[in-house]
């Protein structure tokens, strides 16, 4: 079986003491790992790089992974003290592998030009190359070696490491974890020479781990609680007797087992992508705001409270969450555009702790209903708490009036939304703003369509919330 696919004074004193105890526990029981974030930019509505750097700093995120070497982004990150992983795209692998001078010029233009002001820690040479439809696998190791030689030439090799993220589809087997093994056709030509280079240069193996894909394809066999790091009986590995309390650890240990089988137990692994979508198509089982909040929130807690996996208990976990923003120009299923922790407006898709300090604060709060996720606000919207399972659709006030008006016209026209309450003098006409009126119309359409996947989008002009929106005195219905 394969389980993978391609966030009063006395009371204040008690809280402070509880935070101190939690922080003390984190620092003394086990060394904590690190949380970074993937900053993708396949969208036409994102904040400027300068705004993004400010957002990263306010959220306490000091590691970021990019998918290119965009000069505006690297310039904005200069002197921010944020560590950066940059990428050499798959389409450049062939040229980089065949021509050392090409690699030299690329490193000079994209790395040495910005380092050390921009704290570049590593170069991801390609991304999930083994599943690249353009068949670039043959160029990977040579490209990595040439990039490393260029770093040596510019005396950057001790500071900037070279690696390449792989998907779990590089494994021949992943369940049980102890049976983890790489696909035989990859081992000699690619995996071993890549791990040799990583080992000899003191770099780390980059792995992308997505329990969501495994759950989506095997929801009849895999417990959701097990996938979301929630309380569950766990799964005992029949091969080594180890008990796993979550699928993330089990998948990561399958990679460790595969590395051990070919004698690379000493190579460090960093999870360069993992995450959970807040919205998906009808066949994308488990994609929701509540599940995304649970997965990423519990993942952060898992990483920052220290300790490794059952197979490597002493290793810390270093993880880059995917992703910083929802990206409206990504292709593929709806989920691909909804992995972000933040909307392009910088409002949170859901609220999770991202730092040890935030985690300590969360630990002191009374337990909340786990099925709820905090809704971001837009315009002058206020929200009120609601029962479990309800969702509404509201306008994204940051997309501009043209998109909002187009969405409003469609919803009230061809879409068949009930827009009578927002007509002049009607109950929801006030406040007389485009955001308020569009939100009411979008929600009417969404509810009439039974809150189906993809019915709250309007070209990126709308998003789903889990708290009841309210503009002025107008409350939004939950169904028709």
TrEMBL record:
Keyword Lyase in annotation: no
Compartment(s): Cell membrane
Protein EC: 3.2.1.39
Name of this protein: glucan endo-1,3-beta-D-glucosidase
Record gene name: LOC115955084
Reaction it catalyzes: Hydrolysis of (1->3)-beta-D-glucosidic linkages in (1->3)-beta-D-glucans
Species this protein is from: Quercus lobata (Valley oak)
GO MF annotation terms: glucan endo-1,3-beta-D-glucosidase activity
Signal peptide: 1-32
Region (Disordered): 365-384
Transmembrane segments: none
